[in-house]
């Protein structure tokens, strides 16, 4: 942690030195800075909202928004870089009116919190942002929890302060994890996306967060700023929040709840298994389908765990149920070794326990009926032996 702080300090010194050469405009005393928070959008990646910084100096006809959430779908190997955790996000700059127009078009809400900064601190923030906007500094490797559009805004505000620091208030939510925060700001109509995220994310997602770490979420950062104080005067950091745009987008259509769907599949598999035991049916085709799917998911889990730079996908105990052993079972069927079956049954039991609590990793509730389905079919293979 000390090394990271030292590296950050040295980087800031370089930025400030470069700023003196590149930024020649000094804002007037009437200039102000504010945090802009945008509400959820229709896509999953936008369901957590968005954050940006506004700098306004009417005397010099400056009213711009600095946005750390910009990425380009057209860059070479975009999806491959995204999958490996090596996607470059960048800082963009646009006029305040154009920024508002874009979110009004999408029907998303927008709030503004004016920062109670001194004239020097507003100018410091402007210098930092303008220097960060230079081509050699504007790009960064995106990290959903530790380095995104919200954390960059938070850190820039902290770095512009003169001889004082931010002081987040301690709340009753200090035991929440990153996963809890994802659930809080994921719409109930995005349950399939939530299941996918829970499968992809590992134990780091269950880290107990401080109030400062909560601010990876734009909406949560807005709430934190409302109660945040500065260290010297213990005065509020922001003025009361103002709504600039009200939400007008249509609510997303409801989808089938994955947990209910998998319980239904479990009931059907149970019925087929009972008939298999009574009438001697051979359900090799069913086992092939059921066992190939967790094997395919296991390839994804292993890739994200061992072959990417993502912080939040390591380690991932979904491997207990989404196991590569299921390829063996899909090929061997009732000829599978009983000890290998026993090992996988134990792994499934462990996964089922983790769906009931967050230790050592919280698994999605939809995993429970999946595990039970696989468990029953493995028991059936033992019975056939």
Walk me through this protein's architecture.
This protein has 385 residues and is an alpha+beta fold. It has two domains: 2-174 and 210-245, no CATH class; 258-384, no CATH class. 46% of the residues lie in helices and 12% in strands. The chain contains 13 helices and nine strands. A seven-stranded antiparallel β-sheet has the order 6-4-3-2-1-5-9. A two-stranded antiparallel sheet has the order 7-8. Strand 2 (50-57) and strand 3 (62-70) form a beta hairpin. Helix 1 (2-22) packs across helix 4, helix 10 packs antiparallel against helix 11 (325-332) and helix 12 (338-354) packs antiparallel against helix 13 (367-384). The relative contact order is 0.12.
Binned strand content: 5-15%
Gyration radius over CA: 25 Å
Helix content: 40-55%
What count of helical segments does DSSP give? 13
Entry keywords:
alpha+beta, elongated, seven-stranded antiparallel sheet, 12% strand
Topology (SSEs and partners):
Elements: H1 2-22, E1 32-38, E2 50-57, E3 62-70, H2 78-83, E4 88-95, H3 96-105, E5 110-114, H4 119-132, E6 139-141, H5 149-160, E7 166-167, H6 178-184, H7 191-200, H8 218-227, E8 229-230, E9 242-245, H9 258-279, H10 284-306, H11 325-332, H12 338-354, H13 367-384
């Amino acid at each position: 942690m000390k090394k990271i702080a030292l590296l950050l300090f040295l980087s800031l010194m370089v930025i400030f030195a470069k700023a003196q050469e590149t930024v020649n405009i000094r804002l007037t005393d009437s200039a102000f800075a504010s945090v802009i928070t945008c509400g959820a959008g229709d896509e999953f990646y936008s369901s957590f909202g968005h954050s940006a910084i506004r700098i306004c100096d009417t005397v010099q006809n400056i009213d711009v928004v600095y946005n750390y959430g910009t990425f380009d779908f057209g860059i070479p190997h975009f999806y491959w870089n995204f999958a490996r955790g090596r996607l470059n996000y960048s800082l963009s700059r646009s006029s305040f009116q154009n920024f508002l127009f874009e979110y009004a078009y999408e029907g998303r809400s927008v709030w503004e919190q004016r920062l109670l900064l001194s004239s020097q601190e507003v100018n410091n923030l402007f210098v930092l942002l303008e220097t960060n906007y230079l081509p050699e500094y504007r790009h960064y490797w995106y990290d959903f929890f530790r380095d995104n559009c919200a954390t960059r805004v938070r850190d820039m505000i902290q770095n512009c302060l003169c001889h004082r620091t931010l002081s987040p208030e301690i709340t009753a939510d200090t035991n929440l994890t990153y996963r809890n925060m994802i659930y809080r700001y994921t719409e109930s109509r995005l349950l399939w996306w939530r299941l996918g995220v829970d499968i992809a994310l590992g134990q780091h997602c269950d880290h107990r967060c401080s109030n400062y770490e909560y601010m990876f979420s734009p909406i949560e950062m807005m709430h934190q700023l409302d109660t945040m104080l500065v260290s010297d005067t213990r005065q509020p950091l922001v003025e009361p929040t103002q709504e600039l745009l009200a939400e007008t987008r249509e609510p997303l259509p409801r989808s089938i709840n994955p947990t209910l769907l998998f319980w239904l599949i479990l009931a059907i598999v149970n019925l087929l298994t009972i008939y298999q035991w009574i009438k001697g049916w051979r359900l090799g085709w069913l086992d092939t389908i059921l066992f190939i799917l967790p094997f395919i998911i296991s390839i994804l889990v292993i890739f994200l765990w061992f072959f990417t730079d993502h912080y939040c996908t390591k380690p991932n105990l979904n491997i207990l149920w989404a196991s590569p052993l299921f390829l063996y079972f899909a090929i061997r069927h009732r000829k599978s070794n009983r000890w290998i079956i026993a090992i996988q049954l134990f792994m499934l039991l462990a996964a089922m326990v983790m769906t009931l609590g967050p230790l050592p990793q919280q698994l999605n509730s939809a995993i429970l009926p999946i595990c039970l389905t696989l468990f029953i079919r493995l028991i059936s293979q033992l019975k056939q032996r």
